[in-house]
Amino acid sequence: YFDQDGAISRAHITQYLLEKSRVVHVSEGERTYHVFYQLLFGAPDNVLAELGLDRAHQYRMMYQSSKTSIPGWDESRRFQETQDALGVIGLSEQQCTSLWQVLAAVIHLGELRFHPSPQDDEKATVLETDPLQKASAC
Q1: Considering the entire predicted model, what is its pTM?
Q2: Which of 46, 78, 36, 74 is nearest to 86 (CA)?
Q3: Which residues contact 126 (CB under 8 A, 6 or more apart)?
Q4: Which candidate, 22, 85, 88, 117, has a CA 20 to 30 Å from the CA of 12?
Q5: Which residues pair with 78 in a beta bridge?
Q6: DSSP codes of every residue in 60-91
């Protein structure tokens, strides 16, 4: 609820259960959180380049299910609406950039694959460090 100047004039709080597991595992027919699709499929190319993301790459967390899009859902428009809403609630451009960096790092970390240690079944090694390097660059 906003006044004519865009300032919050009243609010209603709704609690949502945000399942952490939806970031790393998505059931068939479902998608992970919308904001990841907004970023990957809706952000401008220069933003993706700065975050080390490639729209053409099939990131594991985004393609665990065959449902990667919603008919009639414009991710570019949704990305811009999210960006605008973040500004309305008072986030600075730098804060928004930091948010996109964190989300991009999560996408990159979703690419990590591990190999169990033959000596110790409680240890594992990272098979490829490229996702770690990309995540830390965000």
Answers
A1: 0.83
A2: 78
A3: 112, 113, 114, 115, 132
A4: 22
A5: none
A6: TTTSSSS----TT--HHHHHHHHHHHHHHTT-
